[in-house]
Design a protein that fits this description.
The complex is a heterodimer of chains A (about 350) and B (about 100). Chain A is mainly α and about 350 residues long. Chain A has a single domain, classed as Ferritin, core subunit, four-helix bundle (Ferritin). Chain A has 16 helices and two strands. Chain A has a two-stranded antiparallel sheet with strand order 1-2. In chain A, helix 8 runs antiparallel to helix 9. By secondary structure, chain B is an alpha+beta fold. Chain B has a domain of about 60 residues: Ubiquitin-like (UB roll), CATH 3.10.20.520. Chain B contains two helices and three strands, in the order ββαβα. Chain B has a three-stranded antiparallel sheet, with helices on one face. The chains are: A mainly alpha (about 350), B alpha+beta (about 100). The interface between A and B is large, with 42 and 39 residues. Chain B: This is 1,2-phenylacetyl-CoA epoxidase subunit B.
């Protein structure tokens, strides 16, 4: 057994050099065929795949794409809510909102570091986000027009995210699943603060109630779109389900979310903007109206209300933060062993002897 | 011939099964990383306690100071609103 310093080091080479082309089973190398069989058996047995395990290149690429999009969504998602921090109606609400936006940054970091176990780097992923080559959730391209939007985002957007993310805690890739466990625990606060905020408005003055209703009216449909295209039009779903990256189809999760939200809306004293929502005794689920997928496609293409604003703000924040990163690196360089070099030298004999 | 007490100390982390994080199991002395790994296997996984091991030179670990415990972790102490239980939700509302 070879000694290695960390997961991140070895997997990138083993993955890219050896795995190419084996997915379809066309590669001639019998060693690769054996590795693929071991991988398939592990997935079938509901075992987790860990960073140093061999994995098909397409599995790795799918995870990088999904985890990057997920991480990007967390940090872009800071913007619509941060918009209201300076105008929160009380110190209590302001402290809560700051804590929530801070959590979103934290969630982004958990996911970027989990993605780095696949041999990519955070810098590379951020570059792709800034260049528009990787996506974030379409939901964050909608504006937060009133204070009630902060509540609607917590209840509906975070609620939809939780519905999506709970099954991801059992995702076949270990580091992603572990990041999701941590995130889901923290999301519960996000959703509850949103619900509590909406409830306060709904039970407030007539104008406050109307503001809460307006926010729910605007966020309901985009929240349903967060589950992605319908199953028959979802290009990645089938393979992701086979690999147990996904555990439920888009439509299943969307249905689950609707069923959860209907009684919650009633308890809020608010309505959902869909006249077709009604309980279907036969199915034991709610029927609901057709989603406007043209709108979804337009937002994905970049034509949503805030696409341009979000990515411009992200790039600006990154560029304006450059001096902080430079200063930290300059400070570290002045000290004897910069942290980056420490890990590289960890295995070398001269360094080890210093510790004796 | 140098005595074994000159060997550096290594911290040992064991993943008990796939899907779980490596957790700290203890430490040992070894002359190099390869030996540390083998010794860790013999010392900490004799009863199949693990499926993966990390060894890290103890000197490479930067730890927070016990003396600073209060001031270091205090900032999280007065923020109960980071917990879901801080929020009042009407009885009977499910899945929140």
């Amino acid at each position: 057994m070879a000694a290695v310093t960390a997961d991140q080091k070895t997997q990138s080479t083993s993955g890219t050099a050896k795995a190419t082309g084996t997915v379809a089973g066309t590669a001639g190398d019998p060693a690769d065929a054996a590795r693929l069989a071991a991988f398939d058996a592990a997935v079938a047995a509901d075992d987790r795949i860990e960073p140093r395990d061999w994995m098909p290149e397409a599995y790795r690429a799918t995870l990088v794409r999904q985890m990057a999009q997920h991480a990007h969504s967390e940090i872009i998602g800071m913007q619509p809510e941060a918009n209201w921090i300076t105008r929160a109606p009380s110190l209590r609400r302001k402290a809560i909102l700051m804590a929530k936006v801070q959590d979103e940054a934290g969630h982004g970091l958990y996911l970027y570091s989990a993605a780095e176990t696949l041999g990519t780097s955070r810098e590379e992923l951020l570059d792709k986000l800034h260049a528009g080559r990787q996506r974030y959730s379409s939901i964050f391209n909608y504006p937060t027009l009133t204070w009630a939007d902060v509540g609607a985002i917590g209840w509906l957007v975070d609620g939809a995210a939780i519905t999506n993310q709970v099954p991801l805690c059992r995702c076949s890739y270990g580091p992603y699943a572990r990041a999701m466990v941590r995130i889901c625990k923290e999301e519960s606060f996000h959703q509850r603060q949103g619900y509590e905020l909406l409830l306060a408005l709904s039970r407030g003055t007539e104008a406050q109630h109307a503001m809460a209703q307006d926010a729910v009216d605007r966020w309901w449909w985009p929240s349903l779109m967060m589950f992605g295209p319908p199953d028959d039009a979802s290009s990645h779903s089938e393979q992701s389900m086979a690999w147990k990256i996904k555990r439920h189809s888009n439509d299943e999760l969307r249905q689950r979310f609707v069923d959860i939200c209907v009684p919650q809306a009633e308890a809020l004293g608010l309505t959902l903007p869909d006249p077709d929502i009604r309980w279907n005794e036969e199915r034991g689920q709610h029927d609901f109206g057709a989603i406007d997928w043209t709108e979804f496609q337009e937002v994905l293409k970049g034509n949503g209300p805030c696409n341009e604003q979000r990515i411009t703000q992200r790039r600006k924040a990154h560029e304006e933060g450059a001096w902080v990163r430079d200063a930290a690196a300059a400070y570290a360089a002045k000290h004897t062993t910069p942290p980056v070099q420490q890990t590289q030298h960890a295995q070398q004999a001269p360094h080890v002897e210093e510790t004796a | 011939m140098s005595s074994s007490t000159d060997w550096p100390l290594w911290e040992v982390f064991v993943r008990s099964r796939r899907g779980l994080s490596h957790t700290h199991a203890g430490s040992l002395h070894a002359p190099d990383a390869e030996m540390a790994l083998r010794n860790a296997r013999d010392l900490y996984t004799r009863r199949s306690e693990g499926v993966s091991i990390w060894v890290v030179p103890s000197t490479q670990i930067t730890a927070s100071s016990p003396d600073e415990k209060d001031s270091f972790f205090e900032p999280a102490g007065d923020k109960p609103y980071r917990h879901p239980t801080f929020y009042e939700i009407p009885d009977g509302v499910k899945h929140l």
